[in-house]
Amino acid sequence: MGTLYYGDSGTPIGIEDRALAHLKVAVVTKLRRGESFTLSWQHTDGQPRGRSTLWIHQSIPLRFVFDDPERPELSREWIEDLMRSANSTGGIQLVPENVDTAPITGIDTQLHAEAGSG
């Protein structure tokens, strides 16, 4: 289980590593373009029933922490789904992955090189 830290909130957000890796690509892409947006998700088991939304802006500190040291192969389709939702009035909706076995070539490497993070 990975963790998303946003702003000064004392509450870390637990997100499965694979989902967090895909979310990171979508979020970093939007922020590099200077675009603000919302990020919404449904609460998982063990949390109070409901959903949460964050306003994501480049001036607010953001950190992605992964439990697994290895980067997963990314699904182009899942990233495209996240980016489509990012460009809607509802912002990024953290949606489940659609099965896609074709790896993405270049996008993860390019984003990591440009962002200087892993």
UniProtKB/TrEMBL annotation:
The lineage of its organism: Bacteria, Bacillati, Actinomycetota, Actinomycetes, Micrococcales. Residues 1-97 form the DUF7882 domain. This is DUF7882 domain-containing protein. InterPro entries: DUF7882.
